[in-house]
Automatic annotation (TrEMBL):
It comes from Medicago truncatula (Barrel medic). Belongs to the zinc-containing alcohol dehydrogenase family. SUPFAM superfamilies: GroES-like, NAD(P)-binding Rossmann-fold domains. InterPro entries: ADH-like_C, ADH-like_N, ADH_Zn_CS, CAD-like, ER, GroES-like_sf, NAD(P)-bd_dom_sf. Gene3D superfamilies: Medium-chain alcohol dehydrogenases, catalytic domain, NAD(P)-binding Rossmann-like Domain. Pfam families: ADH_N (PF08240), ADH_zinc_N (PF00107). This is Cinnamyl alcohol dehydrogenase-like protein. Residues 19-351 form the Enoyl reductase (ER) domain. The keyword Transit peptide does not apply. Its EC number is 1.1.1.195.
Amino acid sequence: MAKTTPNHTQTVSGWAAHDSSGKITPYTFKRRENGGTDVTIKILYCGICHTDVHHAKDDWGITMYPVVPGHEITGVITKVGSDVEGFKDGDKVGVGCLAASCLDCEYCKTDQENYCEKLQFVYNGIFWDGSITYGGYSQMLVVDYRYVVHIPESLPMDAAAPLLCAGITVFSPLKDHGLVSTAGKRIGVVGLGGLGHMAVKFGKAFGHHVTVISTSPSKQAEAKERLGADDFIISTNPDQLQAAKRSLDFILDTVSADHALLPILELLKVNGTLFIVGAPDKPLQLPAFPLIFGKRSIKGGIIGGIKETQEMLDVCGKHNITCDIELIKADTINEAFQRLLKNDVRYRFVIDIANASPAT
């Protein structure tokens, strides 16, 4: 299948991986002309997600090289197609994981296009015209307006970028379980990384008692003093786990490393829910007894639809919620990848695309 079509005439500077080494290098490629339902965006910032590293290294065996990663994109609209509604030149906007869906199935028609069977992602996907999609590690993007959201004026564009993936990934399950509109629940957050720290911020903003569950004792002070978590459980400490047994209504598991579910499930009350948004490489073992003796549920999910993403951003604007970021230059992406694999970031790298030199 062709990587581009004859309509791809715009030369764009970006950064790509070309093989399973995952090394990111400058890359010049073509994007399509702005169509009737498209907007053209000058990219200012792009967050780095664990998914970017997986795709760059072909960890999942699905990468189409060269791959231009990046699905946490913020920028400014520079061109608007004739059929575009709700956007204009100069608007501050964001683009997340979604580039296309069928627009006709039950999920697309109920604002759950993120679960459409024909969903295509903003990079390493196949767009409607048959071209391979390239992501936000680039200086410009052409995207169908139906997959674009407005960034509230009150939010800084750099710290808002990770909200397009990390933010919506944890917001969606909280909303799905009534935790955005109803306060006073006891929720747990497993892992204090890019996703986890956003879950803590949301949980506290929505009026809940938040417990961080982590393997790292060193994160306790940060979780409680800086992010406002109420409690901290070291997941390898049997005494702490026993003391917190059946204490939580809902747990959001953000960990992508292999880990045991049994001690986590035991923390849930009867009828409690464990919601998984992390993606470990190996299958998780599912213990039956804590489920059947506690009437507990395990669910999972990815990001959210566009309508829900806009709602999340509006909530962030209202509560002044942003991601804690480390802003980097484009020529240090590879170093950021290595640090990310070591969890050496608090809590999300964001590439300063606006001040990057064009690819040569």
